[in-house]
Amino acid sequence: MVERQGGNVKGKRVHRAVAWGILGAGLLALAVHGVVAQAQMRAPAGAKIDAENKTSIPEGFREWPFLGAPLTPNALNDGKAGFPEFHYVYIEPAAYEHYKKTGEFPDGTTIVKELLLTKAGEHPDGSRDEVSGRGYFPDSFAGVDMMVKDTKKFAETNGWGFFNFGHKAPPYAASAAALPNDSCAFCHTANATYDMVFTKFYPILGKPE
Ligand code: HEC
Prior knowledge:
By secondary structure, this protein is an alpha+beta fold. It folds into 2 domains: 1-40; 54-205, Chalcone isomerase (3-Layer(bba) Sandwich), CATH 3.50.70.20. 27% of the residues lie in helices and 22% in strands. The chain is built from 3 helices and 9 strands. The strands form 3 sheets. A 5-stranded antiparallel sheet has the order 2-3-4-7-8. The protein has a two-stranded antiparallel ribbon with strand order 1-9. It has a two-stranded antiparallel ribbon with strand order 5-6. A hairpin with a 2-residue loop joins strand 5 and strand 6 (133-135). It is globular, with a radius of gyration of 27 Å. Heme C binds next to strand 3, strand 4, strand 7, strand 8 and helix 3.
């Protein structure tokens, strides 16, 4: 009897040890997975802001994920659209990855909007005929605007710094300083659809309203 009880106790101990072993291995796997996931969430590598809140256009931004291309033709805006004419919008890749996982723009997110003029119009509304139909067609590069999220540095402009590198053909300005609230941020604060960004124009971001 005593021996059997002893055997049982021993058996239970073995079972428990095996159970702890499995649990431990599971926890370890989870921890490793967590570390890997953390490592995969790379920090955004966009624009670097200096002590005077100046920055430059990140190299290679035309290879970043493309968010969309709103269009404000000059011919439909009394010849002077605020941002003529196509607006090609790109987001820094690590910030985009982060957004896809969390639905949030992390600090350091850089969004570049490059302006492109349309090919010369043939109709009063600035449109022209091409083999695909009547419409507006991209022509030449014509300027860069940029937003960089830094909730501490740019608290006064709702967490984002706004930069204008000129609305003209390249070469663009080598550097630009963050602009005051009444230049840019006020309008994004009043009208943008999610965290200062007009996400409603970028279906890839999955926030249609
Ligand atoms: C009168 C309102 C208004 C002002 C002022 C304004 N923006 Fe915007 N901005 C918009 C709108 C609307 C969009 C999206 C649609 C578009 O591009 O036409 C946009 C888009 C952007 C984008 C692309 C990301 C996004 O939020 O969609 C950047 C970058 C940007 N603006 C930078 C600037 C900068 C830099 C300035 C100041 C030099 C500025 N904006 C001033 C209205 C404004």
